[in-house]
Inverse folding.
């Protein structure tokens, strides 16, 4: 038996709360293991409570088999060990190591000391059932030409890093019939606060809507109109950095270390310079996006107040957190507390492109933008770099590395304003693109459609992936639009896909998984190379 | 190569902050691996920053080799992968899996997105340098007979669960010369607040000193006298449960679900009953210790106020947290915030007998009572169940499973009021006992001497381990006392033992480790069977 393949340590993705009397326990073993039993009991009454249960296979990848079980904990505490059956050997796995001797007593075992639902990651119903639509406001629809920037780029021309198209919040309001008909029930807007760029990730004033997009009343009107249609709205919280032209950074540029905002940033020395590299912390090395010192209580309060303000003022339903992993954990803990205090079902989803476990323990985010799944779909469907078996392996990793509710709280995406369009990655092959979309809709995590994907828009790397939305029906791909409408309808009508459990299967050259929920069960099969 | 033996995921004990520009990265491999390199760079400037470095062996156990390195991060962010050299194969380890292809670019690698020292676990200097002395006040010294309970048990008689001996805070004050001479520089007192039992884990009033122990002025006098001698004082925070005779629980007993304290507890149904089991949550099944509902904001505020009160009022230096793992994480996060706000170098140490990683991430505790080390020392030294090799394996597990600062913040102990005395476990064999003490003093983590261990007191399971302190010099073991004085002096004079790095060595039938700090280096060798 590959004893070294066995891995388990309590909490994180290996032991977590399901509900007030139930925990899920997982263990990783080598592929040769045929059976795993869990031996468990209440450590304060071990002898009369010790029980055992067979564990179930959660999934497999190229190296490991992942097992799980759910344990009912009447006294809210569980101490446990494992009995692992190899081909020619049985071993017991304890916190202190591996033995060939049966477990006696609980001293060396693993412990889940108390089930506190307050520590669990719980996902709001609306998030589990959400189908998101991501809008880059300058490029979606121009509903009010009176607020257009000067020197507009014609709607159908290719974007440059600095072009403006005139899209705005009124444009979105005008297109709500389209979105309702599509069937989505949540919108994610990239930044809308006052900022000089077209993407507005260089905020100048977090408390005003960019005048080219509208104003507070336009946003309220948009949110109300959405809510009336059962559509939730989340905004983009760009709290990692502020814009060069913000009054705070301008003050530091002007007054140097005498500025009352000097401690809002991390500056190596004065005066500020931008060449060869900035002498202050930035997003990446982008001088126009100075990083905020979120460990300064004044900065923290400034930002948390903004997080509350837009919920209270415009009744938005949550926040997508830009560059979320470069801000301190303590900031996000306070962010969660403040946001959930005024809107308990608000959605908090972080932009993290790598493993995000440390942010998904119940104290910070509800989910992350699931770029690991995006990449697996690109490799599998768009670029054919991995086969069905390898894809299910990647999928199992994504599923195993997070606790179950984080999986349901993630935002799944084929592409975004930061990546080439998926259809373009497929070199325009609609069959592949449709397959990828179907897979995304059938997996745990809220699917997020990047505006225009549903009508066949193409585009390479930023800024090409940010073209003006095609509203001319003759130029929209009706077949794709119909496909998306069907996918959305299936997902929204069959909670097995949004709320259900998942089991990834091994079916020869097909990627396959089951989803089930309250008596309904579906089997999803795929092979892009057939 | 045993590819399945390889394990790494960012944060927790695998990737953590050392200081504002340095992170430590660790990886686990099989024992056959001869070399590991880390390939790392800044993902925003990958091509011109990518570098590589050989990793160092941190330790080995029966199954794994543990490697580490420290990476300097000028831009405060590091993305990385590993190159692992097996006997006949080289593989690259990425977040997405294992390949035989060299790493190109950073997309699939591991990421430590930003070094925020505010998220790091940092241990106060005094804690790293501390030698603790644990006192069970009823049994240490009776300095004020006027506050004695009635029906005292004679000081030299064996304890029963209900016997009182008359020890008090004045007694401790009277014995400070003894403690100073011993050389300790920190005291941990088991509970001293008003409670009916002799152990006082059944609190009635958290804001008054038990009248049999003294009063607020006695505590202040004790803390001042200690501080004047350079001795810190921490108290026992029994916040998991309250006592049956507390006014809060009495009110619920009297008024049932009409009590304003009904939500302070988790009660299944009314009226309360205690047989066959309590119908309310308790510590274990102990009806006289009803568990507090620490997720109730009123209860939380009540307890956090107490945590602050004794720091402000009596200037204590920290808290030992009773049954710490059965209280919710959110409570402890707020506890840390409130305590550190008024005393930044306060010590917060949790009683957790199992793996405590989830509490040692920087947001909750500074350390835990290191019972896993205690158990390894019992098995190795006292009971001879494991040999030197197995002991170093257990030690390596303890060292690897926590990040480095947690290791220095742990409280190491041979025994306590909850376990048999170590000398008794050694069946009175002083040579073994002296060895165990030496090992404890030479390892990372603050050693904690349970009162009387240093003069050879014996005692089996509770209550026998809680005998009255022997003050008659003729009955004290002078050889042991001298041994302890020397151990304490060596540790306090040579920071390699308190602040230094550690490397556990493989030296045949000896357990061995190096400790070093600023040019000083020591080698510790042991074998209890020689």
């Amino acid at each position: 038996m590959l004893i070294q393949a066995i891995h388990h340590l309590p909490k994180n993705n290996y032991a977590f709360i399901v509900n007030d009397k139930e925990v899920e326990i997982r263990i990783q073993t080598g592929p040769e293991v045929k059976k795993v039993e869990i031996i468990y009991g209440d450590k304060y009454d071990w002898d009369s409570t010790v029980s055992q249960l067979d564990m179930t296979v959660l999934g497999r990848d190229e190296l490991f088999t992942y097992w799980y079980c759910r344990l009912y904990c009447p006294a809210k505490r569980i101490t446990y060990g494992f009995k692992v059956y190899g081909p020619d050997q049985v071993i017991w796995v304890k916190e202190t190591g591996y033995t060939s001797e049966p477990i006696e007593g609980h001293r060396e075992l693993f412990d889940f000391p108390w089930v506190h639902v307050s520590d669990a990651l719980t996902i709001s119903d609306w998030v589990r059932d959400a189908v998101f639509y991501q809008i880059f406001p300058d490029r979606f629809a121009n509903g009010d030409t009176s607020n257009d920037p000067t020197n507009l780029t014609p709607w159908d021309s290719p974007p440059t890093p600095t072009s403006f198209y005139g899209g705005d919040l009124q444009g979105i309001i005008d297109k709500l019939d389209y979105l309702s008909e599509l069937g989505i029930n949540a919108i994610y807007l990239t930044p809308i606060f006052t900022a000089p760029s077209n993407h507005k990730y260089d905020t100048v004033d977090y408390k005003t809507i960019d005048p080219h997009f509208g104003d507070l009343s336009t946003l309220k009107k948009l949110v109300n109109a959405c809510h009336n249609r059962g559509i939730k709205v989340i905004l983009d919280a760009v709290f990692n950095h502020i814009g060069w032209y913000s009054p705070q950074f301008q003050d530091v540029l002007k007054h140097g270390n005498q500025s009352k905002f000097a401690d809002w940033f991390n500056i190596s020395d004065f005066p500020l310079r931008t060449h060869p590299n900035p002498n202050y912390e930035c997003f990446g090395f982008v001088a126009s996006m100075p990083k905020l010192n979120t460990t300064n209580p004044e900065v923290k309060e400034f930002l948390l107040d903004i997080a509350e303000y837009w919920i209270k003022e415009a009744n938005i339903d949550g926040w997508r957190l830009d560059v979320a992993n470069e801000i301190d954990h303590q900031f996000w803990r306070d962010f969660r507390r403040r946001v959930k205090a005024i809107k308990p079902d608000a959605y908090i989803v972080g932009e993290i492109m790598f493993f995000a476990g440390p942010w998904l323990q119940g104290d910070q985010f509800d989910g992350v933008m699931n770029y690991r799944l995006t990449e697996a779909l690109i490799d599998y469907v768009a670029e054919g770099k991995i086969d069905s078996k390898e894809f299910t392996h990647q999928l199992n990793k994504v599923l195993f590395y997070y606790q179950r509710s984080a999986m349901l709280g993630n935002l799944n995406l084929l592409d975004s304003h930061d990546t080439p369009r998926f259809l373009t990655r497929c070199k325009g092959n609609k069959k592949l693109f449709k397959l990828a979309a179907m897979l995304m809709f059938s997996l745990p995590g809220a699917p997020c459609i990047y505006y225009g994907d549903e009508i066949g828009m193409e585009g390479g790397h930023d800024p090409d992936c940010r073209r003006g939305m095609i509203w001319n029906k003759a130029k929209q791909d009706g077949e794709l639009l119909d496909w998306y409408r069907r996918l959305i309808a299936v997902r929204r009508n069959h909670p097995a896909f949004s709320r259900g459990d998942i089991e990834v299967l091994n079916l020869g050259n097909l990627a396959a998984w089951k989803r089930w929920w309250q008596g309904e069960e579906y089997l999803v099969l795929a092979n892009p190379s057939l």
User: Anything to note?
Assistant: Chain B touches chain A through 59 residues (CB under 8 Å). The CA atoms of residues 381 and 432 of chain B lie 6 Å apart. The mean pLDDT of chain B is 96. The first strand of chain B starts at residue 15 and ends at 19.
